[in-house]
Amino acid sequence: LLEFLQAMIVTSPLRASASPVGDIPTFVFRAAEQHKDEVVLIDAATEQRYTISDIYTTATRLAAGLTLGGYGGKTISVFDNTELRCIYVYYAALMAGGAYQSLDIDTPQDSLRERIAHSQTPIVFTTTPHLLRLQDAVKGLGIAIAVLDQGCGGNSKPTSGIEIGVDFTCFPFSHLLVDDPSFVPVRITSTNDAMAKPAYLAYASGVQATLQPLVLSHFGLLSTFAIGRRRTGCGIDSACRTAVSAVPFADSHGIINIAHFPILSGSCIVQMSSYEPASCLAALERWRAGVFLATHAVLAAIAATAVRGKDGSVSLGGTRSFDIGQLRLVFVHELRNAHALRHKVSELLGARLVEIYGYIETGIIAGIITEHPRIENSVGLLCSGVRARVVLDGKELDEGQFGEILVSTPRLASGGAQSDAEYFHTGDYGTVTSEGVVIVKARMDDLIHLNDGSIVAPCDIEKQVLQLPGVADCAVVASRCQNADDNFDVPCVFIVPSENADNVSTSGFSVQSLAETYPGIHSRIIDCIPRSTRGEPERCNLQKLLKQANT
Length: 551
Hints:
The protein is of the alpha/beta class.
């Protein structure tokens, strides 16, 4: 307890704005009541348009159907990453007094089943392409499946059709749309209740080991919006009122992109279902978008295939050019340690890149923002109302020392965090300066514990390896010492040789020049480094390759 009281607790220097009081649907739709006929969402593939009135009316009918069907107050789930009709489910779940859970289609099958069972969700919404996989995942769980694009059993069925499977029921989405004038949405009338009431169940990533989700409250999902803010697009000019989104909404950040941001800001989101460079550039041109929401993978693909002409247009393979001169801002998730790509994309697209730290963890929960002078590895400032500590091996660290970043935030459904037990463990290895600037180097699970007791982040070794001759790309993972009595790691470097490398073994030989600093360091040649949508090496997959090679 004494150590906790003596901990260096950093409080955000940002001034808190007035916070919304009450539930999300009431706040959002009341704020936009005078603009109910505005188009706020567009499906890029079909060009179907969604107005605020459409969303509210359909969500209310669905909420009435969920309540009538016995699903009120429950966790309602969606298994799809790009279907815009999930916005109806999101608001309907909250209107019916429950919470919303998004199930990523990239989640492994066993994890998908475990999350559905653990959350006790009684119904999952999906689309035809993912129906068979979902049916297999819920066998024996007694789960109802509602199909957003009206298909059941892999085929199109009448809207009133119901299919009974092995311990599941499948029916079209329209089956739950009920016109009930007596239905009254569940309301929240106090800040305390808004802070305590779960609204969104989130997972750190598609490969997160733990079943315990992060529960975001109504207050938490609305706390980044200031009361009384004018609806002026993204806050710059009219050119920025249209945004093309190539970000899946299988997480809290994605759902805010389509459910909160356009309605509250006066913007319009054009949602992509295909993230191919040609599709994205065509959409930017077609809708004259001033904002582009993207992932690392999307930007890397564009950077690898597109060139910028003297007239400012962007072309692919010399076959077609795209006029995207109106583009001003590109928001991208986690480009840290990708400085070269950041610069290349900014020059190519002629737009300013703003990095968003974290899909779910501290990006939304702790409220990290990025509009701050960048220093190396910085991801921005702690948002207002957030406190942070840095801890390593149970010890509180001072400024400048690196460890796991812990945050206290009122955005979680448990309310304000006051004690050590209520600090959220981000799983990020880094530090927080006394000014509230957050620096992140690695995930805690990826750290390499050397035989001298020191700890090194993989990125520190990778930066040195990339300077060696014959190395085009690399990723470092911890390789456990083979001696049973020793409890330390040695770095294993996966290397992609450069095309002009004389001998692939040259890269491996060069790594030995780092052996004095990193005892036992060794390398393996690989065709390409597997990377996540955030651009980070998929170290779990590399660890599996390493284990296979050692057996």
